[in-house]
Amino acid sequence: MIQVFAFYLFAGLVLASGAMTIASRNPVHSVLWLIFAFFNAAGLMVLLGAEFIAMLLVIVYVGAVSVLFLFVVMMLDLDFAELRTGAARYIWPGLALAAALAAELVITVQAWSVGPIALSSRAAPISAKPNIEAVGELLYSRYLYIFEAAGLVLLVAMIGAIVLTHRKRSGVKPQNIARQNARRPEDATRNVQVPVGEGVEL
Question: 0.70 exceeded by the pTM?
Answer without folding.
Answer: no
